[in-house]
Write a structure and sequence with these properties.
Blueprint (H helix, E strand, L loop, with lengths): L4 E5 L8 H11 L3 E5 L6 H13 L3 E6 L9 H9 L6 E3 L11 H21 L3 E6 L8 H10 L3 E5 L6 H4 L1 H10 L2 E7 L19 H14 L5 E6 L1 H8 L1
Parallel strand pairs: 1-2, 1-8, 2-3, 3-4, 4-5, 5-6, 6-7, 7-8
Length: 242
């Protein structure tokens, strides 16, 4: 079975060069790209990008998310409607970035994700939830289970702590297995210093070979269930691959 490998892409410049992008992705064995768009991106450009992805047999997911969507999810619902033209949507909403983050905000976030997932299901849009590895360690294990059970088709996990990938995934892996949801672990490739990243959070200085070695160990540990791999993100994946 072909290894499922995805790549996050947060910048619109990739949209303008679909031939080069998907040629590169095919060469690297990437099976899905999570692509962010902005209101300034032309619909024709987006449509051409999606079409080229399908020709290359690479799934193209809409990548979207703002922290305040936990409390004001209207824009999320709009993105889900847009995602009917894509292969699905990856939702990256980080409520813990909100001022005064607490149990009430977390509850609002869970409710917003449940409603969003119900909308996605009604439209036939595959819905992947991007979450950090630490909700259980913050005391939100019950909420984490609801997110996995009731709010998505699968999770992609920001597992950004080098050397702790396996233990940090234990709760999420168990819940995904229990509720039959897809599981993906993300490796950070951006350099230390960007977005507050420390060296321990990223494989930028170690390279893709070390990422793949780590993932093989992780996949062997969780061999009772399928685990996918994702890379964050396109710019630095390309730099490290060349």
């Amino acid at each position: 079975m072909k290894l499922q490998k995805s790549l996050f892409s947060w910048f619109s410049k990739e949209l303008a060069h679909p031939e080069a992008v998907f040629s590169f992705l095919q060469k690297q064995g990437i099976t899905a790209i999570y692509q962010h768009v902005t209101p300034n991106d032309m619909q024709e450009t987006i449509a051409r990008f999606i079409k080229r992805g399908r020709q290359a047999n690479v799934k193209v997911f809409l990548l979207a998310g703002e922290a305040n969507w936990a409390l004001e999810p209207k824009d999320l619902h709009r993105h889900i409607e847009q995602a009917t033209k894509w292969d699905g949507i990856v939702v990256d909403v980080e409520p813990y970035l909100l001022k005064g983050f607490n149990k009430e905000i977390m509850a609002a976030y869970v409710s917003a994700m449940r409603n969003a997932y119900q909308k996605a299901r009604s439209l036939g849009v595959p819905f992947i939830l991007c979450i950090p590895y630490f909700y259980d360690s913050l005391g939100f294990t019950a909420e984490l289970e609801v997110l996995i059970r009731d709010c998505c088709d699968g999770v992609t996990i920001m597992n950004y702590y080098r050397g702790q990938e396996i233990p940090h995934l234990e709760t999420e892996a168990s819940l995904c297995h229990l509720h039959q949801k897809t599981l993906e672990t993300i490796y950070e490739l951006q350099p230390p210093g960007k977005h507050g990243l420390k060296d321990i959070n990223t494989y930028y200085h170690l390279g893709l070979k070390k990422v793949d070695e780590n993932f093989q160990t992780l996949a062997t540990h969780y061999q009772n269930q399928a685990v996918k791999i994702s890379y964050h993100e396109f710019v630095y994946f390309q730099e490290l691959a060349e």
